[in-house]
Amino acid sequence: MIGVRLYLAQRLSAMVMVPLVFGHLAIMIYAIRDGLSAAEILSRTQGSIFWGLFYGLFVIAAAIHASIGLRVLAHEYLKIGNTNLNLLTGLIGSGFLILGARAVIAVTL
Amino acid sequence: MLSEAEKPTAEFLDVAIWRGNAKRGVFHSYKVPQLENQTILDVVSYVQRHIEPKLTYRFACRVGMCGSCAMMVNGRPMWTCRTHVDRAMRGIMRGNPLTIEPLRNLPVIKDLACDMSGFFEKWTRAEGRFHPTRTRSEAIEAISPDSDARKAANEAIECINCAVCYAACDAVTGNKHYLGPAALNRAWTLINDQRDGGRNLRLSAVSGKGGCHNCHSQQSCSNYCPNELNPTMSITGLKRETTKAALKREI
Ligand code: SF4
Ligand code: SF4
Ligand code: FES
Questions:
Q1: pTM of the entire structure?
Q2: Which of A85, B18, B183, B209 is positioned for an S-S bond with B126, CB 3.0–4.6 A?
Q3: What is each CA distance from B105 to B72, B160, B186, in whole angstroms?
Q4: Domain end point (choices B57, B88, B114)
């Protein structure tokens, strides 16, 4: 149960995520190719504004995208109605945001 | 050599017709004489005329014009007046009956007749009404049949309101507000009608909680539409136009 605004938000967040997903995959493969340790990775990400922004944006886009997608599923399969659906969307979105933000802070701060 | 079970069932067709009301129903079995050239509607009519006079079903034109005879045949939505038994039985294992049920996604009134009012209400909700821009005292506006807009409208216009697409659509099953492929397809023809003045009204009407954005683009509607229309493409058009209008803050 989505209108044009949620539809747009989901499409735009998907567009943001496409390059970020590929970037993330490429970096992962590149970084662990010679068996890099967690400490070595952290030494490069900690204090880096670039990685903070990269993964910060990723987390925001993923939280928006996933909460709208799950909203549709919750309505179509669990028949959750409007008010509860808005609540659930907000809850899932902020949940992902908090979890993601914790991870980003942990590796970049 | 053919086994007993594999032998053709002589001249009788085993038919299972769903009979019941809004609350419950069951399949009833009938034996219908098989003809060389026989439509599903012929089978249903035979049962009603010769075996079960109380069997309720709808039809009118018998030639694929009126859109009133659609039913689920072997689990698929079809127009029954133009579907031959042979075609409907293709891919069905020998020994299984021809099953006929009321259309999916619509409340049953009795037997094979569904309540279509919700389906048509959604046409109104999708602003499927023409909004004239001229009065009867003005000259009729000339529309070039070659214009892109008219071509797009023509591609989607031959809808017979049969609700086959509506029965085929899982988004309709999942979301009772969803306007459905037929109503949205109608809205798209009007968006492309240069004489119509209700564009933004209609774009708003198809952008709510049951609007075009709830379509999953899996094309079941286009797959089953007996007139070979492509509601999915119409809905994609609506998604595009509503997106543009929303970005320009017109809706
Ligand atoms: S493409 Fe859209 S309208 Fe067509 S059947 Fe799928 S969800 Fe329904
Ligand atoms: S779009 Fe096709 S399937 Fe749907 S109501 Fe019109 S003719 Fe029937
Ligand atoms: S009876 Fe009119 S379309 Fe089938």
A1: 0.91
A2: B183
A3: 11, 18, 19
A4: B114
